[in-house]
Structures are given as C-alpha cells and as structure tokens.
Design brief:
Blueprint lengths: L11 E5 L5 E5 L14 E3 L4 E2 L2 H10 L4 H5 L2 E4 L10 H28 L6 H19 L4 H14 L1
Antiparallel strand pairs: 1-2, 3-4, 3-5
Helix pairs in contact: 3-4, 4-5
C-alpha cells in the first residue's frame, strides 16, 4: 500500500493514482467516522461540525476560496447562539475599543517604566500624555468642561 507511510495535512487523505503514486485529496466530510456529541467542534463560520475531521474536510473542499481561508477551528464543543448586536452595541463598539486600547497602552507604559524596551521612545512619549491625563483625571473631581476637553483631545490622540 503506497499510502501506508504517506502523510497528508488535516482535511486531506492519501489516494493512489492509476500509476500507484500517492497524493493527497480532500477528505469527504460525509465519509468521516461518526463522533460522540462531546467531540463536536465549532468553526469560525459559527457552524457546529461533528468533529475535526468534518471541519477540516470542509475547509479543504473550500480551498482557494475566501470562505476556505477564513474557516478555522473556533473552539471545542457545539457552537453557542450569538445574538445579533443591537444598534446601541454597534454604536458603543468604537468607544469600547478606544477605552480598551487606552488601557492597554497605559499598561504597557507602566511596565515600560520598570523595564524599558517594551515601547520605542516615540511610542513612550505619545503614551505618556495619555497616561498623565488618565492619572490626573482619576485623582479627583473635575468640571465637566475639563473632562469633555480631555475626552476630545485623547479621542484624537489614540
């Protein structure tokens, strides 16, 4: 058997051509062995697959397409229902991402003060302003006008 020691990547199986030469072809997802419920996996397309064999066989069959490049194992287990975002959540997303980025930058800046080398000098100088503003605003009560000014300034900074 020419396929005995011939290995293929996930989602492909060995097949001998007419001359007996082995090569890899896509695994037929329907031909995958049956699995137990606890072996289900969730793909990045938010579809539940009976197992990794079925997921990678499907990915192989989609090779060369946008969907094939985007399909990966997301997590073990059946896919969870993800409700569509509300208009409010969509509106809040950029603000939440901005706050997340600010927090990450501040954490890097604080680490960089102890062990330099995480940020470049240019990055350190830019983040220093955000860090100082954040620490100043946390320290006490400020008029709404000052908070608004800092918000607008920082919004454009990062």
């Amino acid at each position: 058997d020419t396929c005995r020691n011939f290995h293929c990547k996930r989602g492909k199986v060995c097949h001998a051509d007419k001359q007996g030469k082995p090569h890899c072809i896509c695994q037929d997802p329907a031909a995958c062995p049956p699995t137990k419920d606890y072996e289900h996996v969730c793909g990045t397309d938010n579809k539940t697959y009976d197992g990794t064999c079925q997921l990678f066989g499907t990915k192989c069959q989609l090779e060369g397409t946008k969907m094939g490049r985007q399909l990966h194992l997301d997590y073990m287990g059946s896919c969870k229902y993800i409700p569509p975002c509300t208009d409010y959540e969509v509106d809040q997303f950029p603000l939440r991402m901005r706050d997340w980025l600010k927090n990450i930058l501040i954490q890097y800046y604080e680490r960089d003060m102890n062990t330099s080398g995480i940020l470049t000098e240019k990055q350190r100088n830019k983040v220093k302003k955000i860090y100082q503003n954040d620490k100043r605003l946390v320290a006490g009560d400020h008029p709404v006008e000052l908070l608004l000014h800092d918000f607008e300034k920082n919004y454009h900074m990062y």
